[in-house]
Amino acid sequence: MAQLTRRTKQSTGFVRMMTIARQHPGLMIAGAIVAVLALSALLLGFCSARGETFSIERSGVGSSAGEIGSNAEGIEGGDGTGAEASGRGENGGGGGTGSISDEHSAGGASEAQLVIDVDGAVVAPGVVEVPAGSRVADAIEAAGGLAEDADVSGINRAAPLVDGEKVYVPRVGEAAPAPAGASSASDGDEQSISPVNINTASLSELDELPGIGPATAQAIIDDREENGPFASIEDIMRVSGIGEKKFGNLAPYICV
């Protein structure tokens, strides 16, 4: 009889709870949430007591997030697998980066530089470095550019450069240098040429002088026949068409 009475009370209590749940569904949901949280807390405490961890995976996460989660589980599990895999990944990545760096370094080393001595009428005379394939104008620019009294009429600024070459920019009134880029053998040949005697030179010999054409060569011959031989090389400036600038280019190649 006592058991029947107890069961009747339990049934009545259950019915009363169901009635309350129907009337107040929010209370039922809140109770379910509290129960889930309590169960999670118990499970977390049990795992922590055993020195284990767990992770909750969410659906819809991309493959990259899944890989990160698996690496984290390996590290937290203490078996060393995740750490080893991560270490291998880092080493592999480092190797790849090193290879790329080596390639860039090799590329930079293979980019040849020309060492050029720039002198004369430039802003900052001295030894400069320019990339392979540069021209005389590039070397002049590397030396600060042309000075105010520079005379570039006798130099070829478009001539290609060679390593170890000397570029000289004459000043106004100076003789023009040998063409940039000329070989040492040709320089030696030019230096070995004897100056032309302007008092005895023929028309063809005068015509070969720098800046002297057939007409000017004939004018030189006519002048020395009419006015007598030239007493000095400066006297050639009495010939029409030969001024100080042209004389400066002629001076190294003539004599009396």
UniProtKB/TrEMBL annotation:
Biological process annotations from GO: DNA repair; protein secretion by the type II secretion system
InterPro entries named among the record's database cross-references: Competence_ComEA_HhH, Endo/Exo/Phosphatase_dom_1, Hlx-hairpin-Hlx_DNA-bd_motif, RuvA_2-like, Soluble_ligand-bd
Region Disordered: start-end pairs: 59-108
Listed Pfam families: HHH_3, SLBB
Record's compositionally biased regions (Gly residues): 89-98
Record's keyword terms, sorted: DNA-binding
Top-level division of the source organism's lineage: Bacteria
GO MF entries: DNA binding
Helix-hairpin-helix DNA-binding motif class domain: residues covered: 204-223, 234-253
Gene Ontology cellular component list: type II protein secretion system complex
Entry-linked Gene3D superfamilies: Outer membrane lipoprotein wza domain like, Photosystem II 12 kDa extrinsic protein
Name of the featured protein: ComEA family DNA-binding protein
